[in-house]
Automatic annotation (TrEMBL):
Pathway: Cofactor biosynthesis; thiamine diphosphate biosynthesis. Residues 65-271 form the SsuA/THI5-like domain. This is Thiamine pyrimidine synthase. It catalyses: N(6)-(pyridoxal phosphate)-L-lysyl-[4-amino-5-hydroxymethyl-2-methylpyrimidine phosphate synthase] + L-histidyl-[4-amino-5-hydroxymethyl-2-methylpyrimidine phosphate synthase] + 2 Fe(3+) + 4 H2O = L-lysyl-[4-amino-5-hydroxymethyl-2-methylpyrimidine phosphate synthase] + (2S)-2-amino-5-hydroxy-4-oxopentanoyl-[4-amino-5-hydroxymethyl-2-methylpyrimidine phosphate synthase] + 4-amino-2-methyl-5-(phosphooxymethyl)pyrimidine + 3-oxopropanoate + 2 Fe(2+) + 2 H(+). Keywords: Iron, Metal-binding, Pyridoxal phosphate, Thiamine biosynthesis, Transferase.
Length: 390
């Protein structure tokens, strides 16, 4: 990847239609398209259920519900696997589409790329009840009015992320053809912004705290405060929902995630420790306070307004429809999409059918290490949005 390659198209980005056909022709992923590592024929059914990250790494706090649930035994005897995937932003849907993974975690923009390119995927568990995405600026250069970005350059970690930023900007009245993008590479796009390249960069909740740990201190236009668009979601092959055995598996699997989400809500510090046990380097880089800050940012996104939701993972169809209508207007998709056709809440009730009192007892019963026990969670919560543009 280079850090001086502008991307100007307002069409779906990250991969061309021709390149897409090279990936999916005959139902296989070629080594040329996605790299030779890890490509294998998959047996029918879910011998091992593979979830694939959208960010090219698992060493983040974003997936804390899984690690918390795994540690607590909430997945039972299900054979589950987590894979980082390539850093290409569209890999999380491409791998699921061709059977190299079973569930992906795309942003709505990348999900729209899948729909536009004929991938028969369906969203089954909406993790991001609030918009997690934000625009980062160097200190003193931020704006509350995103129209100020017209004529400016936004840095991305992957070209595919333009499909995230375009609808975010358009919904705020920005003429997106007047915005330039530069693919500054993963994980270096934040460092590029700090170094004076570009005018702004895409960020998201949780990452804000991780960037502070790397010495990247920015100010932000925050989607959680200003955007009505949805955020990342879990997608599977639509055909899997027509298979009774696979659907039953998905219900149990998503119940594990929902229990992990509830566990993290009840005891965020214990959830951070579960991730840190899995990834000691992440623990060393972040430490208890920034780790807890990161997870609290994400809990706010994942939980949303639970009083108005059908449980963890429930889709707000109005929000999703608003997103699809917006991207149709800007040409990110070329045909209307009905939210109910590509998103379903059918698995939400069974996913949330667990003993919440037991999960709370499990979470409350965790003996925290000294560093985490000393933290004042309420104090951290009170300062979660201090970096918002004033």
């Amino acid at each position: 990847m280079t850090n001086d390659n502008p991307i100007h198209s307002s069409a779906p980005v990250g991969i061309s239609r021709r390149y897409f056909l090279q990936v999916t022709a005959a139902g296989v992923v070629t080594a040329t398209a996605l790299g030779a590592s890890g490509l294998k024929a998959r047996a029918a059914g879910y011998e091992k259920f593979t979830w694939i990250s959208p960010r090219g790494t698992l060493e983040v706090l974003d997936d804390y519900p899984y690690w918390s649930a795994k540690k607590a035994g909430y997945f039972g005897d299900l054979n589950t696997d987590m894979q980082p995937g390539p850093s290409d932003g569209t890999a999380t849907v491409k791998f699921v589409d061709v059977g190299q993974a079973d569930m992906g975690f795309p942003s709505p923009g990348v999900f729209s790329f899948a729909i536009q390119n004929g991938m028969k995927l369906k969203s089954v568990f909406h993790m991001g009840a609030r918009d997690t995405f934000s625009i980062a600026f160097r200190k003193g250069q931020g704006t509350k009015n995103l129209k100020d970005l017209e004529g400016k350059t936004i840095l991305l970690g992957s070209a595919a992320w333009q499909s995230i930023v375009d609808p975010l900007l358009a919904a705020q009245g920005v003429e997106i053809k007047k915005v330039k993008y530069v693919e500054a590479g993963w994980p270096t796009w934040g460092t590029a912004l700090a170094g004076g390249q570009g005018d702004a960069a895409l960020s998201w909740e949780g990452l804000r705290a991780e960037w502070i740990a790397k010495g990247l201190d920015f100010e932000y236009w925050l989607g959680v405060q200003n955007s009505k668009l949805p955020a990342n979601t879990f997608v599977v092959r639509a055909a899997d929902l027509e298979d009774a055995d696979k659907k039953a598996f998905l219900e149990k699997y998503l119940r594990g995630w929902a229990m992990g989400l509830e566990f993290g809500y009840q005891n965020p510090r214990a959830a951070v420790e579960a991730v840190f046990e899995q990834f000691p380097t992440l623990a060393k880089n972040l430490g208890p306070e920034l780790g807890t800050t990161s997870i609290l940012q994400q809990i706010n996104v994942f939980r949303g307004d639970m009083d108005k939701r059908g449980g963890w993972g429930s889709h707000d169809m109005a929000s999703w429809q608003g997103f699809f209508d917006e991207i149709l207007k800007i040409g990110q998709i070329t045909a209307p999409v009905k939210a109910e056709d590509v998103c379903t809440n059918d698995l939400i009730k069974p996913a949330n059918d667990f003993d919440k009192a037991k999960v709370k007892a499990d979470a409350d019963g965790v003996k925290l290490s000294e560093g985490f026990a000393a933290l004042d969670v309420d104090k951290i919560k009170a300062h979660l949005f201090d970096s918002a543009v004033k």
